[in-house]
Amino acid sequence: MFNFYNFAVSISALNTMLNLIVVFADPMPMRRNYMHHIWTEHVLNGKSVAGSDVMMAPWIGQQYKNSQNRGSHEFYFNQNIDHFGHKAGLFKQRVLINAQHYRDGGPVFLMNSGETAASSSYLSAGEPYSLVKETKGMLIIMEHRYYGKSYPVSDMSGPNMVYLTVENSLEDIANFVRHAKEFVAKSIGISISAKSKWIATGGSYSANLATWMRLKYPGLIHAAYASSAPLLIEEDFYQYDMVVGRALSCAPRIADAIETLDLILDSQNRTLIHNWKRACGLGSLKDDADFAGALTDQLSHAVQYHMPPQPGSDEKDSLAQICSWFSYTEHNPLQNLADMTRSYISSNNIDVRSTYTTLSGANNIQLYQDGRSWFYQTCTQFGYWQTAPRPPLRRLRSKYVTSGWQSSPCHAFFGKSVPPQPDVDSVNKRYGGLLPNVSRVVFVNGLLDPWSSLSVAVDEEISRRISANGKNTVITMPRASHVTDFYFASTRTDFGVKEARAKILGALWYYLAQT
Ligand SMILES: *[C@@H]1O[C@H](CO)[C@@H](O)[C@H](O)[C@H]1NC(C)=O
Ligand SMILES: *[C@@H]1O[C@H](CO)[C@@H](O)[C@H](O)[C@H]1NC(C)=O
User: What is the value of pTM for the model shown?
Assistant: First the structure.
């Protein structure tokens, strides 16, 4: 059988074949509850901000003294439900603004919230906020349609979801920018100068939007800062685990566990399978693929959101914690995996059936289920289904976790409103995949991020081509993971983030000086 040495060799052989020099990480979520939603979960600590009170920043009172909206920094922009004329009408799209540092002519940073509710935390922390302070700019956070409080429909049935497209989202941004001067003046009493240049920004999917805004509307958007943008849309996203394998020193033992697991699932021996489900704390899952899928949750989470411990603190390293389970060699590797999973489920109080059952919640069409919105986007345009690489590469997740299994609930959730497969080819063709025809975009990626395998950092040749002659800037952080530069970077300046931040600011100054 193949050992992990072969695993590494096979990856490099495959990459050469695909003309990819190195495969690192990947960006988006897995499916619904436990699919690694790009970054929402981590940033918001699993709490949805929809419907909750928006935190008040201390500067609000002063800044908006003369404003009729004093005491509030949450505003609503009247947006078209459909920019392509299939449905008339407007909806209220939530907008958050921090103009505390704005000086005439400073840049306007526009951050779309992507596949998550707009978080007011970003008004006073994180890299966009730091950039606004440094450049005397204004920060505007615009909530993505169908997330947070910005739902253009009255329920989430299939036919109501059809206005949730990348194309409508880009038009939302363009329409907002065109009307921003009046809107901001009316909202907070501050006039955006005609000299102010717009910089689109975001993390993960929202970084794609920032890049594609620069592509589609170079006249509105002067530059972009894209953190962990998974520009290449892949339906069968097998590269994700290749990065997970590189990040975990115990990956060979995990692969041994998965090999045993697949033999057990192949056996169709119900008693044996049920015994292992119970050993993993997953006895309530009827479906074998749901069971196999649940076993990947903790690994993906640990790698995608990895933070090295703060020097001098007693924080534990999430990767070392995973591997500590696999150091009990008196047990077989599958037993290690079972012990780890059982402990994860009980210590996080995970409701197994609702979290890991594929069809759970299919008929619940109530509003404000942001996970359902993201699932719709994956069903229709992105896929991004995280699967195991095909042999001879070794697997860190079961062969039963296929893209077909992950897409199979799409129909149950949304009926005929979703195509049999997501139309990833159209998206790649329209926006240019890994080589969009853009300029003045600052791409930042952590190389331990599984999503970076779909980013411009996947390959030196791609990085070189896209950044030729300073047209764009590619910044990599070897030991960082998903959107690490973007969120609350001000409190974590180690493992390459500090250097990356200096480069981001330098590149943006350079682009701002261009006309
Ligand atoms: C199924 O697995 C159980 C539990 O390991 C074992 O006792 C039984 O013999 C197996 N049945 C068959 C038909 O192999
Ligand atoms: C790329 O964009 C530039 C400027 O917007 C345009 O002139 C050029 O034709 C585009 N190239 C391709 C291949 O589309």
Answer: 0.87
